[in-house]
Amino acid sequence: MGNTVAREDFEWVYTDQPHTERRKKILAEHPEIKSLMGPDHNLIWIVTLMVLTQILAFYLVKDLEWKWVIFWAYVFGSCINHSMTLAIHEISHNFAFGLNSSKVLWNRLFGMFANFPVGLPYSVSFKRYHMDHHRYLGADGIDVDIPTDFEGWFFCTRFRKLFWIILQPLFYAVRPLCINPKPISRLEVLNLVTQVSFDVLIYYLWGAKPVVYMLGGSLLGMGLHPISGHFIAEHYMFLKGHETYSYYGPLNMITFNVGYHNEHHDFPYVSGRNLPKVKKMAAEYYDDLPQYSSWVKVLYDFVMDDTISPYSRMKRKATGDIKQD
Length: 325
Description:
single chain, two-stranded parallel sheet, 4 strands, two-stranded parallel ribbon
């Protein structure tokens, strides 16, 4: 458990991200993919049902023993809440109400609604930083999906890497403040106020146990959890020269197809619902790319492989006209 990872820095590259060029090639050969771009209004009803399901769960856990509160937070609440964060990911791309500029505010407000069961206000901030992740993938000082130098330096043994996975929610929350802090927007303040109001209301109605279930589900679900394998599977360089990886396993059914990650970065205006169609239409581009069938194995390999660490990310200097939200 004390083996030290060999890497001492990120994998610095001096080329543009691969998705822009591949998108151009695919569209030239498969222009029909443009028909898949656009909103997925089913998100509205799916997310609403998920929120109501968690509110029902809050009521049901209020009289349970604490051990069962924690049990159900990990077994059920974590799955719902992690799935909800990926619904918020879809909403951040404006898929709920549409890509039209007149619907942008509707998407931001709906993201706040989807945020309620998660317990911690983040939907608006996530949208701001996630767009940077797409435009400037791996860009130093911009893409906050890239770990900090401290993470790469410190979490360099198997035990420390396991601890790093458990603490993923903490690092995703703190990392933007270290790498690319932004002024707080009015929508972020509104997100904070509405979320705190919801949390206080749940506490007032049913006490502390539903609040612990809610927050525990989010923290446990984004830490050492099968679904959390996607955090590492998406962009950590298990094979030299490959920056993005797709996962085609069954957990896509509850994660809005976030596993189709090469397809998602190639076509960020195609909703998760339609990403399998992209792969089918352009199979010659995706079938031979490195891919996963198990997020659990990704987590295991990340911890046990002494050549992999938080430093195992491709990183580049930002070039051109930088436009951030």
